[in-house]
Design goal:
Strand order of the largest sheet: 1-5-7-8-9-10-11
Family: Belongs to the vitamin-B12 independent methionine synthase family.
Largest sheet: 7 strands, parallel
Radius of gyration: 27 Å
Helix content: 40-55%
Cofactor: Zn(2+)
Keywords: Amino-acid biosynthesis, Metal-binding, Methionine biosynthesis, Methyltransferase, Transferase, Zinc
Mean pLDDT: 94
Function: Catalyzes the transfer of a methyl group from 5-methyltetrahydrofolate to homocysteine resulting in methionine formation.
Bound molecules: glutamine, zinc ion
Structural class: alpha/beta
EC number: 2.1.1.14
Number of helices: 27
């Protein structure tokens, strides 16, 4: 069978189920919604495009839910979640449940339907969408609730009860999952017009009555357990915030609800203080902890756990794709059982499986040995159940020994270890890597050499990716066109993009990235130590998914990756052409990373590979090199106490990539966000010559952080217009923005560029927008 050994235990369970088996204490925090082949994505997009009906979308969704519930039931999972499905986002679902629809969407009460729901998520012809932001330190994004004293809360979506009933009618008794009331408030922001300092937590009195109604409805529908996700408990919380949990859960009167309540935490350890608060909550029967990322949780539990309560032990990693080390997990579980009683330990996932890939069974092209090391969501369910059975004394020896063989093969496989790389990376630690000359002097030398005007214009890298272009890449990958034809097609595309930029009179050009489908996968395909999946998609936001490469071994660069295309592009123009690379931290943060060595070690290895590429580009005559670090901030640990260490090795890794170039080689970096007030010193410490950032949706004041306390001498290009929208900004509008920036930043360091890459835009939008951008820059140059 394609899924190999993972099929085995399911069958065993089915065989044995004729004799009564003690229900195993197994639990899944949540499950991916997109489907094994992104079925939900395609159904959503077709519905949004008006190509299919609401009923068709609902049918796809119901089929996905049914198959997930059945899969878990067949695997023997005892506590199966419901309401972890969402048409867009679980936080938005909670906003709908509470009727907290911002007034601008013109909702008039009643049950919230697709119209209002998707308008909040995506905007509509007249109203923009609600803000979206990263879900903790994942690449998932949630829709930020907008709250204030004016919001009239009402019970406006019965989705959680409907999903519970739907599962029940299919014969599956589930644990309905809700975003807990305190996390919901802590993750929200004051609505427009509401003071920034408004105490959002005070709204708890208004939302608790709705939560109470929901709990009562679930009880009436037959639920016996209910799960509240309170992941904010892993953050650095003030005692006031912690008290909000005590207060809210007391007010909910869960002890009177007749239900068993589980509170889930995930993504990191809870602090000792949060642990005390959590385990003292009234009316709660079980507590869930992330035992993969949370390294201190075990000690806290062993130091004292409320008697008679259940521990949901998250030992199976929901954030990664590695097969669990079952023997080691079982040891952990048994020792926990020794402390709190074996019948009180429920085997679980570290967090929702939303953050991992869906099903390994669809990876038909993956190397067999590597595949034996992996477990996606569908396989993790089987692992959870196998551990639960083993803990209950019914260990499936065959399954465990197959797992042990795979673990051993991963430890000893020569494809994992590359001694030379290990040595080189180890030598980097503790040392410093910096360009010898300071940035202001470098920048001056660079401007002189390339004769750049003041307020130089550039773009971030990619140009529109047309359907034809995607087709060429696809055909080449499938061996349907020859390498020669492929090179010709890409060359033509590059030449078109170069000509366009010359016509537009842009100063520093890009080749447009037509050969890349994704800024991380492109490098993953070429580096050793990486594997690429066919269907390893993970939801990023709404219908958007990403497909992170898998880093399974020591990373090295067998040969140059971008020099061919970049030097070809440079040869087409006399203007400087940016070499375009993805930085080590971003490659790391947007991949599934090995768990058998610390993240920084893997990052240093990638940095060395990128360093070689940078130096090869320089040798080939490329004098401007952009090293994107779009995801540097995303990897910032949730807890303050761990942030300095991360920033230290992340910034060090970036500097390693370019510490060896000449003063006159200009290093750019790009970041897809602008709120780095808290990490500004690290950004400066990256020591790039020019940094372009996303800024068009925030105000210029943010830029003043670059001047606060530190004299920042490097070039800075705050995105001058929003590439996420099809809108074409006028010359006046752009000039106005540049002027506002000039009020904060020196003219000799300001660059003029869009927000981010132009990949998702159409030429009809890009041409006039860039033309206006250049015109605005020229207008201001004349005035300076
Ligand atoms: N160079 C990349 C591009 O332009 C950067 C993308 C990103 O920052 N997400 O597409
Ligand atoms: Zn970007």
């Amino acid at each position: 069978s394609p899924s190999g050994l993972y099929r085995l235990p399911v069958r065993c369970f089915a065989l044995r189920s004729s004799t009564p088996v003690r229900a195993m204490a197994s639990h899944i925090v949540g499950y991916p919604r997109m489907g094994p082949k992104r079925e939900l994505k395609f159904a959503l997009e077709s519905f949004w495009d008006g190509k299919s009906s609401a009923e068709e979308l609902q049918k796809v969704a119901a089929d996905l839910r049914a198959s997930i519930w059945k899969q878990m039931a067949d695997a023997g999972i005892r506590y199966i979640p419901s309401n972890t499905f969402s048409y867009y986002d679980q936080v938005l679902d909670t906003t709908a449940m509470l009727g907290a629809v911002p007034a601008r969407y013109g909702w008039n009460g009643g049950e919230i339907g697709f119209d209002t729901y998707f308008s909040m998520a995506r905007g509509n012809a007249s109203v923009p969408a609600m803000e979206m932001t990263k879900w903790f330190d994942t690449n998932y994004h949630y829709i930020v609730p907008e709250l204030g004293p004016e919001v009239k809360f009402s019970y406006a979506s019965h989705k959680v009860v409907e999903e519970y009933k739907e599962a029940k009618s299919l014969g599956v008794d589930t644990v309905p999952v809700l975003v807990g009331p305190v996390s919901y408030l802590l993750l929200s922001k004051p609505a427009k017009g509401v003071e920034k300092s408004y105490p959002l937590l005070s709204l708890v009195e208004k939302i608790l009555p709705i939560y109470k109604d929901v709990v009562a409805d679930l009880k009436a529908a037959g639920a016996s357990w209910i799960q509240f996700d309170e992941p904010t408990l892993v953050m650095d919380l003030t005692s006031h915030q912690l008290q909000a949990f005590t207060h809210a859960y007391a007010e909910l009167e869960l002890d009177l609800s007749g239900l068993d309540v589980l509170i889930e935490t995930y993504f990191a350890d809870v602090s000792a203080e949060a642990y005390r608060t959590l385990t003292s909550l009234k009316g709660v029967a079980g507590f869930g902890f992330d035992l993969v990322r949370g390294t201190k949780a075990l000690d806290l539990i062993k130091g004292g756990f409320p008697s008679g309560k259940y521990l949901f032990a998250g030992v199976v990693d929901g954030r990664n794709i590695w097969a669990n080390d079952l023997a080691s997990s079982l040891t952990t579980l048994q020792s926990l059982g020794g402390v709190i009683g074996r019948d009180k330990v429920v085997v679980s996932t570290s967090c929702s499986l939303l953050h991992t890939a869906v099903d390994l069974a669809n990876e038909t092209k993956l190397d067999k040995e590597i595949k034996s090391w992996l477990a996606f969501a569908a396989q993790k369910i089987v692992e959870v159940n196998a551990l639960a059975k083993a803990l209950a004394g019914q260990k499936d020896e065959a399954f465990f020994s197959a797992n042990a063989v795979a673990q051993a093969s991963r430890k000893s496989s020569p494809r994992v270890t590359n001694e030379a790389v290990q040595k080189a990376a180890a030598a980097l630690r503790g040392s410093d890597h910096r360009r010898p000359t300071n940035v202001s002097a470098r920048l001056e030398a660079q401007y002189k050499k390339s004769n750049l005007p003041i307020l130089p214009t550039t773009t971030i890298g990619s140009f529109p990716q047309t359907i034809e272009l995607r087709k060429v890449r696809r055909e080449y990958k499938a061996n349907r066109i020859s390498e020669d034809d492929y090179v010709k097609a890409i060359e033509e595309e590059i030449s078109k993009v170069v000509k366009l930029q010359e016509e537009l009179d842009i100063d520093v050009l890009v080749h447009g990235e037509p050969e890349r489908n994704d800024m991380v996968e492109y490098f993953g395909e070429q580096l050793s130590g990486f594997a690429i999946t066919l269907n390893g998609w993970v939801q990023s936001y709404g219908s958007r998914c990403v497909k992170p490469p898998i880093i399974y071994g020591d990373v090295s660069r067998p040969k140059a990756m971008t020099v061919f295309w970049s030097s070809m592009a440079q040869s087409m123009t006399n203007r400087p052409m940016k070499g375009m690379l993805t930085g080590p931290v971003t490659i790391l943060n947007w991949s599934f990373v090995r768990n058998d060595q610390p993240r920084f070690e893997t990052c240093y290895q990638i940095a060395l590979a990128i360093k070689d590429e940078v130096e090869d580009l320089e040798k080939a005559g490329v004098t401007v090199i952009q090293i994107d670090e779009a995801a540097l901030r995303e990897g910032l640990p949730l807890r303050k106490s761990e942030q300095a260490f991360y920033l230290d090795w992340a910034v060090h890794s970036f500097r390693i990539t370019n510490c060896g170039v000449q003063d006159t080689t200009q290093i750019h970096t790009h970041m897809c966000y602008s709120n780095f007030n808290d990490i500004i010193h690290s950004i400066i410490n990256m020591d790039a010559d020019v940094i372009t950032i996303e800024n068009s949706r925030s105000d210029e004041k943010l830029l003043s952080v670059f001047r606060e306390g530190v004299k920042y001498g490097a070039g800075i290009g705050p995105g001058i217009y929003d590439i996420h929208s099809p809108r074409i900004p006028s010359i006046e509008e752009i000039a106005d923005r540049i002027n506002k920036m000039l009020a904060v930043l020196e003219s000799n360091i300001l660059w003029v560029n869009p927000d981010c890459g132009l990949k998702t835009r159409k030429y009809a939008e890009v041409k006039p927008a860039l033309s206006n951008m250049v015109a605005a820059a020229k207008l201001l140059r004349a005035q300076l």
